[in-house]
Every structure is written in structure tokens, then in C-alpha cells.
Design a protein that fits this description.
Elements lengths: L1 H25 L5 H17 L3 H4 L38 H33 L1 E5 L2 E6 L5 E3 L2 E5 L8 H12 L2 H14 L5 H22 L5 H11 L10 E2 L5 H9 L14 H11 L2 H9 L26 E3 L4 E3 L6 E3 L3 E4 L5 E3 L4 E8 L5 E6 L4 E8 L1 E2 L6 E2 L4 E4 L10 E8 L2 E3 L7
Parallel strand pairs: 2-4
Antiparallel strand pairs: 1-2, 3-4, 3-5, 6-9, 7-8, 9-17, 10-16, 11-12, 11-15, 12-13, 13-17, 14-16, 17-18
Length: 440
């Protein structure tokens, strides 16, 4: 779940940076078609750039596999006296609570959009309508004209009296397929509802739609003064449906300013190239660090130093008193329900408590591994490895160097686990040994 939230944060950062640059540098330009495409492009870019590390050539990566780890059998080590198991108390999983709240709000927002489209569809099918050219004119109980795709909704009994300029305005919205933009934006906004800039973004996109339509109308022999007077006459304070296009969109001042503004010259278009270095920076921000680590630190570069390793206790603020199952103890597996000899130590702790790297090393694995749940494997000197299982989430990535005491993950309850704890193992040259003999 932490990976999902980290991705959402990264995507939000990309979106925020690009949108702020747009607002400061490009939003005043009169290249409305380009601005519209740029705003829509921000959405997929913000979703893809966090994956930029995976878009680089694979030749820069080091791939290493380790065999799947099994529990020790009863004959593989000497059995030690039984030790009373300390029960693991249940704890609140704040990540799951956060995820539940997040997806509940996403569901509500998506449901609202779907319900709106459904209501418009019902309104279309239950109201009197006429088809002219490619458009459906639908007479409904409304005080103003609005459109959705090729449907143009008008007040009842006004089809023959409606101002032709207003009709042209809504037709252009349909021709330019502005409704597609709005639906895509609503879906994106549902998943990024926590970003306060989303409301501003939706307004900017709709404003750009209006600027684009206004510009096309004024080029079709519609007099600016007549057009502005019509806008003033149709202005109402009624609530408007966010999925629809309205002739009297409530940004009258901005529309008048844009209509009377001197058109941007071709040289002004060079400002769009300002986005190139910003895009490059964001692309490498999510990839360069990993590439550097992979090139400079490989497992084969670990130096032989002392023969014995001294480990830090792997759970922050934990101690030997928190160990609920010791190495070599014969026990009944809490999930598999078969007798096993324990291959490491179990340290009871609440979910979310930081897990520390017990010694300097190189991250071989940081991934979900079947019964081990979220697993981290660190390679140390002289053939030592440490393994941290059942994690809630990661605070590191594969192919990275870590220092003793670095937070690498969080205590969890994933894989074949019956309660919140850390399963910790020490391996020397392929054989499991008791970690307590090496913990300082």
C-alpha cells in the first residue's frame, strides 16, 4: 500500500510542477488549441514520469536472483529448549485505514460523474428533441443553453427563437470534442482529489475551451461588441453542471480580456520550449539516482573485512525482550499448521514501526516473495546476508547501498504471518545461523 501512496505523491509532484509552469509562463498566450492539448497532456505525463526509471535501457541494470527460501527442517539444526511464545497483540493498520478512506472518496467522485452522465442520458431520451445536421436539440426545463458532446440542451419552446450565435457556440464545443477532455479530467481528478490544484486545473481547462470557441466565433464574422453584449445578457448566477459546456461560462471578465487581447506572435511560441528542461529534470529525477547506484555499487564489489559480523537490533527502539520466537525452536507454524524449526527470530512490534538495516550492505531484494510477504535481503561482507520478512512496506529499493541503522522498511503482517512482527534471519555462506550471537 505504501508503494501506491508513494506513486500518487510522485505523480502529484510532476503534475504540480508542470501545471504551475503552465500558469506562470503559458496561460496568457492566445494559442488556445496548443494550450488545450498541453493541459490534457499534463495528465498522462504525470502518470508516466514516475516510471521513468523503467523507461531507460536495461543495459544499465544488474539482475540478481536468489533461490526461494524454505523453512528449516527438523534435522537441519540442533533443537534448543522450548521458549514460551509471547503473544502478538493486534494493532491498528493506519495504511489500510488511509487506503479505505482514499478509495471511498474515489468511488464517490466516480459515482457522481457516472450518475450525472446517466441523468443526462435519461433527460435526452425522455425529452422532446429534434435532429439538425449532426446535432440533437433537446428541449428541457432549463433557463440556459448547454451542451454535452453532440447534445444541445435548450429551454422548452425556444428552439426557433434561440440566438444563432449561441447555437454556433455550442456546435463548436461539439466539433472540438471538449466533452472528452472534461470526462478524462474528471476521472483523473477522482484519483487525485487530495491535490488542491485540481480545482484550478479544471477551471483552466474549461476557460481554455471557452477561449478557443470565442476565438473561432469572432473569426466567423461575429462582431465582438455584439458577442460581448450577448454574453452579458445571458449571464446567470445559477449552478452549472461541471460535465457540460455553457455559453455563459462564469469567467466573463477573463473571456473579454482574452477576446480584446493582442494575439500572441510566433516568437511568443518559443516559450513552450521552456517546458523541455522542466520535463527532462522530472524525467531524470525519478531515474538518475537508481542508475548511479547500480553502476557504482554491485554485490561483487563488497570487500572482505572482519570475519565476524556485529549486528544492530533490526527493529527501532526494540530489544531482546520483544523476541516472541527464537532461532532453532521447534514449533507449530501458525499458518501452515505443521511442525517447523524456526529459521530466524520473530520480533513483535506494531505495524508501521521502522525496520533498520542491521549492518552496512547492498540491497539484493526488496519485493513481495510469497509466504515471506514483503521481503528485504541485504548482502554484507564475508558471505553474510540478513533477511527481513513480513514487512508492511519498503523504504528502500533493490541495487542500493545502505548503512547500518538506515530505515529500510516497516514492521507488517504480510505473507504467511498471523500477527504484526518482523521475521529476521542471518545467513553465512548459505547457512542460517542464530542472529542473537551477533546482535550487539
Amino acid at each position: 500500500m505504501t508503494e501506491l501512496f508513494m506513486y500518487l505523491i510522485k505523480a502529484t509532484i510532476v503534475f504540480t510542477v508542470l501545471f504551475v509552469v503552465y500558469k506562470l509562463v503559458l496561460s496568457k498566450l492566445t494559442f488556445h488549441a496548443i494550450n488545450r492539448l498541453l493541459l490534457i497532456a499534463l495528465l498522462p505525463l504525470s502518470l508516466l514520469l514516475p516510471f521513468s526509471n523503467y523507461l531507460l535501457p536495461n543495459t544499465f541494470r544488474i539482475s540478481e536472483e536468489i533461490p526461494f527460501m524454505e523453512e528449516l527442517t527438523l534435522s537441519s539444526i540442533v533443537e534448543v529448549p522450548a521458549i514460551i511464545e509471547v503473544s502478538q497483540s493486534a494493532s491498528i493498520n493506519y495504511w489500510e485505514i488511509g487506503a479505505t478512506i482514499y478509495f471511498f472518496i474515489v468511488f464517490l467522485l466516480l459515482f457522481r460523474s457516472i450518475a450525472t452522465i446517466r441523468n443526462l442520458w435519461i433527460l435526452k431520451n425522455t425529452s422532446q428533441k429534434q435532429r439538425k445536421e449532426r446535432y440533437h436539440f433537446i428541449e428541457v426545463e432549463t433557463a440556459e443553453v448547454f451542451s454535452f458532446f453532440g447534445w444541445i440542451f435548450i429551454p422548452k419552446g425556444t428552439l426557433e427563437d434561440i440566438n444563432p450565435i449561441i447555437v454556433k457556440h455550442e456546435k463548436i464545443h461539439a466539433q472540438l470534442k471538449h466533452s472528452f477532455d472534461i470526462i478524462i479530467t474528471e476521472i483523473y481528478a477522482a484519483f487525485f482529489w487530495f491535490n488542491p490544484l485540481m480545482y484550478n486545473f479544471k477551471n483552466s481547462l474549461k476557460s481554455t475551451h471557452e477561449f478557443q470557441v470565442d476565438s473561432k466565433l469572432l473569426k466567423k464574422e461575429v462582431q465582438p461588441l455584439e458577442y460581448m453584449q450577448l454574453l452579458l445578457q445571458s449571464l446567470t448566477g445559477k449552478k452549472q453542471e461541471p460535465l457540460c459546456n455553457y455559453f455563459n461560462h462564469p469567467i466573463l471578465k477573463k473571456r473579454v480580456e482574452m477576446m480584446t487581447k493582442t494575439q500572441s506572435n510566433k516568437l511568443s511560441g518559443l516559450k513552450y520550449f521552456f517546458l523541455a528542461p522542466i520535463f527532462a529534470f522530472l524525467f531524470f529525477a525519478f531515474s538518475k539516482a537508481d542508475q548511479k547506484e547500480i553502476k557504482l555499487t554491485a554485490p561483487t564489489e563488497v570487500l572482505e573485512t572482519s570475519e565476524k559480523i556485529t549486528l544492530l537490533f533490526p527493529v527501532k527502539n526494540g530489544s531482546r525482550d520483544d523476541i516472541s520466537s527464537f532461532f532453532g525452536k521447534s514449533r507449530k507454524h501458525p499458518v501452515l499448521n505443521v511442525k517447523k524449526v524456526h529459521s530466524g527470530i520473530d520480533i513483535k512490534a506494531e505495524e508501521g514501526v521502522p525496520v533498520l538495516a542491521s549492518e552496512d550492505g547492498f540491497i539484493l531484494i526488496a519485493a513481495k516473495k510469497k509466504q515471506w510477504g514483503n521481503l528485504i535481503v541485504i548482502k554484507h561482507t564475508n558471505g553474510y546476508e540478513t533477511r527481513y520478512a513480513h514487512l508492511q512496506g519498503f523504504n528502500t529499493q533493490e541495487k542500493r547501498q545502505v548503512k547500518k541503522g538506515d530505515v529500510i522498511g516497516y514492521v507488517g503482517n504480510t505473507g504467511f504471518s498471523s500477527g504484526s512482527h518482523l521475521h529476521f534471519e542471518l545467513i553465512k555462506k548459505g547457512k542460517r545461523i542464530d542472529p542473537l550471537d551477533h546482535i550487539e
